[in-house]
Specification:
- By secondary structure, this protein is an alpha/beta fold.
- The protein folds into three domains: 5-57, Orthogonal Bundle (3-methyladenine DNA Glycosylase II, Chain A, domain 3); 64-310, Alpha-Beta Barrel (TIM Barrel), CATH 3.20.20; 325-442, Rossmann fold.
- Helix content is 40%, strand content 16%.
- The protein contains 16 helices and 17 strands.
- It has helices spanning 5-11, 25-33, 47-57, 104-115, 140-152, 164-174, 189-199, 210-222, 237-253, 272-284, 297-310, 343-356, 372-377, 383-393, 414-421, 435-442; strands at 64-66, 73-75, 93-99, 118-121, 124-127, 130-134, 156-160, 180-184, 203-205, 228-231, 263-266, 289-292, 325-327, 336-340, 360-365, 403-406, 424-427.
- An eight-stranded parallel beta barrel has the order 3-6-7-8-9-10-11-12, surrounded by six helices. Strands 13-15-14 form a three-stranded mixed sheet, sandwiched between helices. Strands 1-2 form a two-stranded antiparallel sheet.
- Helix 15 links the parallel strand 16 and strand 17.
- Helix 12 crosses helix 16 (435-442).
- The relative contact order is 0.09.
- The mean pLDDT is 93.
Length: 443
């Protein structure tokens, strides 16, 4: 458990210089105690005090990096138990498990399939983060060759083996890529810790239960290995979730340092879709890395979508840039559509404009990421503001007409908008799905 604010204050220089940001040393000490400030912000702290305060100034869950540039996965450094209180910052890394005993052709095909697991959805890119390569062949050379095949495809790695000799063979080939070593247990932790330090790689710590994980984390730390990931995987889904919750609660609320690391969980169900359902639970509570066997697009996309939703800012809706968007091979006669910058609204309109086969311009007005009716009800979709946006966005230089299509749900603003903008306002369909029929009837 970390030091209290008053205990930290006793070790500070008490200059009240304000150079750290807060107005007093006591205020700074309170921020250190809650993990909201770094000791580096104090220019006058002594070496003795720094040594005593390292634990108190460290974040409750350490930031760990897996992989190398340009594809580094950052996990940990979370400060909240509940997303609605603030937000979560480092999305769960999703890893697809692959066995090294596949044939060379099968391995290449599986790795290519994983590399291809990338999706564009509502303006965001979703992709898998890691390949979890498991040594089932018990052949060090084969394991190392499989690791190299993954690294050659620019895939970041988790290396899974209990045998230090097998792990050493793989690290000799891909250690410079900073894979996650999985893992250290009571039988091998000294050798695994040495390999992790030698290659500068993070290490997974695995115990039989919470006490076992805590004790082993302390032992590995004492060997000088500080970049750890703790494994919460248990016999069933509910027990794994319980472990992950205890890791998070004890790290954040009690500042229990052995659990002050990001957590990993393996999906254990045999059926791929059951693994995805497990994964949804583990991402929510609170896996920093999730390992699944499922690798087909229809299996993985729901998981990545759930992750994206969970790690969005609950106080800030997903938005698109408020500017002129072109859909298709537009020209000066193409229709112009008005909408809002809420992602779901915008992409609903965009997909229907594409479906109409008539290229068009879309103008998403900045409504702070709210939908059409919500924005109008909140006074964020006023004709005068929309007219100003039309003038400033540059659409008047792109088309030789002055016709603009507004959502049918806000037909009430058509007269005022026409008067404020000088454009001829066409009231479009109430739902985006009506755009293809509407545009074919009018253009």
């Amino acid at each position: 458990m970390g030091l209290s604010g008053l205990e930290i204050y006793k070790l500070l220089p008490k200059k009240n210089c304000k150079e750290c940001g807060p107005p007093t040393c006591l205020a700074f000490a309170m921020q250190l105690a809650s993990g909201k400030a770094s000791l580096d912000a104090c220019p006058y702290v002594s070496d003795e005090a720094r040594a005593a305060l390292d634990a108190a100034s460290a974040p409750p869950i350490k930031l760990i990096k897996v992989g190398r540039e340009p594809k580094v996965l950052e996990i940990g450094n979370e400060t909240e138990l509940f997303r609605h209180e603030k937000t979560f910052y480092h999305p769960t890394g999703v890893a697809i498990r692959v066995a090294d005993d596949l044939s060379e052709e099968e391995l290449a095909g599986r790795l290519e399939a994983i590399k291809d697991l990338a999706f564009e959805r509502v303006g965001q890119r979703y992709e898998v983060d890691l390949v979890a390569l498991e040594c089932r062949s018990q052949d060090a050379a084969r394991f190392a060759a499989a690791a190299k095949a993954a690294a050659d495809r620019s895939l970041s790695l988790i290396l899974i083996s209990k045998d230090p000799a097998v792990m050493a063979a793989a690290l000799a080939v891909v250690g410079q890529d900073r894979p996650l070593i999985c893992g250290a247990d009571g039988s091998n932790y000294e050798e695994m810790a040495r390999l992790a330090q030698e290659h500068g790689c993070p290490l997974v710590v695995q115990g039989d239960d919470l006490d076992g994980v805590a004790e082993l984390a302390k032992q590995v730390e004492s060997l000088g290995c500080k970049d750890l990931v703790i494994d919460g995987t248990a016999a069933n889904t509910s027990k794994t979730v319980a472990n992950l919750v205890q890791f998070r609660k004890l790290a954040l609320k009690k500042r229990f340092r052995p659990f002050g690391y990001p957590a990993l969980a393996f999906a254990t169900e045999e059926d791929p879709m059951a693994q995805i359902l497990q994964g949804v639970s583990f991402i929510a509570k609170y896996a920093a890395i999730l390992v699944v066997d499922a690798y087909r697009k229809e299996e993985v996309l729901p998981l990545l979508t759930w992750r994206a939703n969970l790690y969005s800012d609950p106080q800030k809706p997903i938005q698109v840039e408020s500017k002129v968007h072109e859909v298709g091979d537009v020209n000066a006669d193409s229709p112009v559509y008005l909408t809002t910058n809420f992602s779901l609204t915008y992409y609903s309109v965009e997909s229907e404009v594409e479906a109409s086969k008539v290229p068009g311009y879309i103008l998403p007005v900045n409504t702070d990421g709210t939908s059409v009716l919500t924005a109008w009800a909140a006074g964020k979709y006023e004709p005068e503001d929309i007219a100003k946006f039309i003038k400033e966005c540059g659409i008047e230089e792109k088309v030789n007409h002055r016709n603009i299509i507004i959502p049918g749900q806000v037909a009430v603003i058509s007269g005022r908008l026409q008067e404020a903008s000088g454009w001829n306002v066409l009231v479009g369909p109430r739902e985006a799905a009506g755009i293809p029929a509407f545009v074919k009837a009018h253009f």
